[in-house]
Design goal:
Elements lengths: L2 H6 L5 E5 L4 H11 L3 H11 L4 H8 L15 H16 L3 E6 L3 H16 L3 E5 L3 H4 L5 H9 L4 E5 L6 H9 L3 E5 L13 E3 L15 H15 L6 H18 L6 H16 L3 H10 L8 H4 L3 H11 L9 H9 L4 H13 L8 H8 L5 H33 L8 E6 L6 H12 L3 E6 L5 E7 L6 H16 L5 E6 L2 E6 L1 E3 L3 E7 L3 H13 L8 E8 L7 H8 L12 E15 L10 E8 L7 E6 L3 H9 L7 E9 L13 E10 L3
Parallel strand pairs: 1-14, 2-3, 2-4, 4-5, 5-6, 7-8, 14-15, 17-19
Antiparallel strand pairs: 8-9, 9-13, 10-11, 12-13, 15-16, 15-18, 16-17, 18-19
Helix pairs in contact: 2-3, 5-10, 6-10, 6-11, 6-16, 10-11, 11-12, 13-16, 13-17, 13-19, 15-16, 15-19, 16-19, 17-19, 21-22
């Protein structure tokens, strides 16, 4: 049996890694912070330190970090940007913002627009049509700016690798100021200023920030450079959109600045009386109880992302601009009245028919109608992704060797390229290894790709290596896209992202080269990197799973990337009543399972409702290999069931989110 097959078959690549921490260190941390030993162990594990001062600096970061802006980027970049903004003020110029059409880019766009308008600049914003144009600075948007008489464009959460597009803007006499957080390319664009912390020679706190946070910090720095007071409402707004962008982009929450942005930003989001945010909040959150950072990633963030993924103004489908319209709405009685209407229709808004959508699209000037658009687009996004996944399951059987392929590569046709990232992520989670989806469109010679990876494999570097090999061999980039401008076709670069998530476009003739060389690169990665580790804090008793314990865990929020929500372990459990479920639009595949977890001793008090997302196949596997009196070991996180609509919590409201199941060995 080959090494790959031995690892991948029968879920063998899943590893349960138990935290190994000195007992005395756990006792010291528990005593210092007056917390349960399991939570103390979680802090030591997440922070990889037993130093009390360091632990305190991460879990309770100093607020002054929000105002220390000197090391954002090299000083000449900021000075160039401020000088150009002053010129725009003097000349009463119109400026444009080209944002990335996801929650992070939307947040960056919103704070740039709000900040620039506060400085007196007439500011417009346009987003790429993601299904047809993808990401980055667009030729179409550059030409729209030119046609409006603008000579200054800002980018939000994009632009760092858009060398050709910036060159084209320059040729039209348009200056470009880039605000971005993505990895630098091998050649920098000739922008007037690049606000990207990766330009700093030494890594600092800003390297781990989301794109929206970089835009926010840039606006703060501009005000500071101009010796202007930063308005409180603008600070609140910047924190809200930066928190949402940070949650969406899964930035490191070991970074104390990110922790401040997320924790304080979510509080502002929860408490603000800005009408647009209030409506989005009511539309997205089932109950005030659930407005916590880790819940926003599955409630409000998908709604922020949805218009950008499938929106197309040319087809009367609201794009990411409609979300910025919503976010920018401030306070006022008129919008408050509309918000009351939204609250009444919240439970039925998912089923609003096409006629209502068309009616609501007629105006995006108030909070109610914009929020309805966003929610309906999110439903359309769910439908599209479900249809893609139905087709994908057939293609996986045809195109992939599940037992040996180190990367899952699936080719489809006419899939909406704006939503394939969601399905790529699902492939990664299902098969626990890197995944790539390629989709071609009728009438186009170019193929769009989306990649998602597991924690120990940097797929950005893998794909970049393939690109560099291609350039050496053929003296041109592998990843590019063809766009039309003034009757002429132009080539623009089309690759960017992060270690665990990136996107690209390439010519269909190069698919074979791409796949062959990706597979070669993957062979150089050690097999242990493909082991999917669940980092488990420790064994927990049934009696320790209670409301007080959950409350104490929440005190050390926010949780997320590199500061994981704690995973615990129960042994010798009974599991009963497995019921499969899935996306309501998806007929052929149901990936999730609900079941009951009980103590094998039979105590009724120790029974928990449980859910396993993407766990149906594993659930069936262990059940099929069990006998009547078998017991099971589980790893899981603990939370209050999101369906609960009351603050008067009971034991029965606790839910286990089961991540993996194993048959207990005698």
């Amino acid at each position: 049996m080959s090494e790959s097959i031995a690892l991948f078959e029968n879920f063998n690549n899943q590893r349960w890694s138990f935290s190994k921490v000195n007992h005395d260190d756990v006792s010291n941390v528990a005593k210092t912070f007056d917390i349960h030993p399991l939570i103390a162990k979680m802090l030591i594990h997440n922070l990889e330190s037993v130093d009390i001062d360091y632990i305190a600096s991460i879990i309770k970061p100093e607020n002054k970090l929000q105002y220390e802006l000197d090391d954002l980027v090299p000083s000449e970049q900021l000075e160039n940007a401020v000088k150009r903004i002053r010129q725009a003020q003097i000349n009463s110029e119109i400026v444009y913002v080209n944002g990335d059409p996801d929650a992070d880019g939307i947040g960056g766009t919103a704070i740039l627009v709000a900040g620039l308008r506060q400085l007196g600049l007439e500011t417009k914003y346009i987003f790429p049509i993601r299904p047809t144009e993808g990401h980055g600075l667009q030729i179409r948007i550059i030409e729209a700016a030119r046609d409006a008489g603008s000579t200054l464009i800002f980018t939000a959460d994009c632009g760092t690798k858009d060398v050709a597009a910036v060159e084209y803007a320059n040729s039209l006499g348009i200056d470009v100021i880039i605000t971005d957080h993505h990895i630098l390319g091998h050649k920098l664009p000739n922008a007037l200023a690049i606000i990207n912390p990766y330009l700093n020679e030494t890594k600092n706190l800003y390297h781990d920030l989301a794109g929206s946070s970089i835009s926010f910090k840039f606006i703060q720095a501009v005000f500071k450079h101009m010796k202007k007071d930063f308005p409180e409402f603008l600070y609140e707004f910047g924190m809200i959109v930066s928190a949402l962008g940070s949650i969406s982009d899964r930035v490191s929450l070991l970074n104390p600045l990110n922790r401040l942005i997320v924790s304080d930003g979510v509080k502002f989001y929860r408490d603000t009386d800005r009408e647009g945010v209030k409506v989005l909040r009511k539309l997205s959150e089932g109950h005030h109880l659930m407005i916590k950072p880790r819940h926003l990633s599955r409630t409000v963030v998908p709604r922020l992302n949805a218009p950008g993924r499938i929106g197309n103004p040319e087809q009367n489908i609201p794009d990411a601009g409609v979300v910025v319209d919503l976010l920018l709405l401030g306070r006022g009685k008129r919008n408050a009245k509309k918000a009351e209407v939204v609250q009444k229709i919240f439970k039925s808004v998912l089923s609003i028919d096409q006629e209502m959508k068309q009616e609501s699209m007629k105006s995006n000037n108030d909070a109610f109608k914009v929020a309805v658009d966003v929610n309906n687009v999110n439903e359309k996004r769910k439908y599209i992704t479900a249809k893609i996944q139905d087709e994908m399951d057939v293609l996986v059987d045809e195109q992939v060797d599940i037992n040996s392929d180190r990367v899952i590569i699936v080719e489809g046709r006419n899939w909406n390229s704006g939503v394939i990232g969601i399905d790529t992520d699902r492939l990664k989670e299902r098969f626990l290894r890197p995944a790539i989806i390629l989709t071609s469109q009728s009438g186009s010679e170019y193929v769009r790709g989306s990649c998602r990876s597991i924690p120990r494999i940097n797929m950005y570097n893998v794909i970049d290596n393939v690109d560099q090999s291609y350039q050496k061999e053929f003296n041109k980039p592998l990843f590019c896209n063809e766009v039309e401008s003034l009757g002429e076709k132009k080539m623009v670069s089309a690759f960017g992202g992060h270690a665990q998530a990136c996107g690209f476009t390439l010519h269909r003739d190069n698919i074979s080269y791409f796949k062959e060389n990706i597979e070669k690169e993957m062979l150089d990665i050690p097999m242990e990197s493909f082991e999917y580790h669940y980092d488990i804090i420790d064994k927990i008793s049934f009696s320790d799973i209670n409301l007080d314990f959950i409350k104490k865990i929440d005190e050390f929020s926010p949780y997320g990337q590199k500061y994981a929500f704690p995973i615990f372990y129960l042994e010798s459990c009974l599991i009963r009543g497995g019921k499969v479920f899935g996306n309501k639009y998806q007929e052929s595949v149901k990936n999730h399972v609900r079941f009951q977890v009980e103590n094998a001793l039979g105590s009724e008090d120790y029974s928990f409702s449980s859910v396993g997302f993407n766990l149906w196949e594993k659930y069936c596997f262990v059940k099929e290999n069990s006998v009547e009196d078998s017991t099971f070991d589980l790893i899981f996180t603990i939370e209050i069931d999101p369906k609960v609509k009351t603050t008067k919590l009971k034991h029965s409201h606790i839910r286990l989110n089961v991540l993996d199941i194993r048959l207990r060995q005698s």
